[in-house]
Amino acid sequence: MARSLKPLAALLPWRRNQPQADELYGAIVARARLPVFYQGFGVPDTLEGRFVVLSLHLFAVLHRLNPGSAHAREMAQELADRFTADMETVLRELGVSDLRIPKKVRGLAASGATLLQDYEDAFSKGQGALATAIAHALPPDATSEAASGQLAPYLVAVVRHLEAQPLQDVCAGMLKLPEP
């Protein structure tokens, strides 16, 4: 039996289970980085503002994956794991000490999960509730209400667009999103 040439593979089980999750998460991150959200929609171009835009796109994909097959639910978990790992990387880049990283990551993961659940609850109540949830997630300033008013209909359009795509395409990492 041949031994693995990748000794870290055992430490990174998601990398061997769902390689498409990397592609899917990369597409979510790339979309969240588009300047239109910060220049056109008025989202503050800050760490907090970028976190909100990333979480909105992650929510849309998770919303599509969660009612699906076991494979889709597994992919949803893979995306959540990558989101957590991404937050750890950001904290390290910001200079948070190694001793504080686990506590900070747990806090960010918990607040991210709460934020995603808030979006889910608001989504089921309509666009007005969704705009309010987004406004509460954005850094409090004069632009958060205007930005959330533009982000809410965009998010609804993204969710509807993803619902029309075959689930197997989304699970395969082929993410097609409408233009903002």
Describe the protein in words.
Helices cover 71% and strands 0% of the residues. The chain has 180 residues and is mostly helical.
Which descriptors apply to this entry?
9 helices, 180 residues, mainly alpha, 0% strand, disordered N terminus, globular
Offer a concise description of the structure.
This protein is mainly alpha-helical and 180 residues long.
Q: Based on helices, strands and strand pairing, what is the structural class?
A: mainly alpha
In the residues, how many domains can be counted?
1
Instruction: Please tally the β strands and state the result.
Output: 0
User: Which range does the strand content fall in?
Assistant: under 5%
Nearest-integer average pLDDT: 86
User: Uncertain spans, ≥5 residues at pLDDT below 50?
Assistant: 1-10
Distance between the termini: 51 Å
Helical fraction: over 70%
- Characterize the biggest β-sheet: none
Number of helices: 9
How would you spell out the order of helices and strands?
HHHHHHHHH
Radius of gyration: 17 Å
Question: Shape, please?
Answer: globular
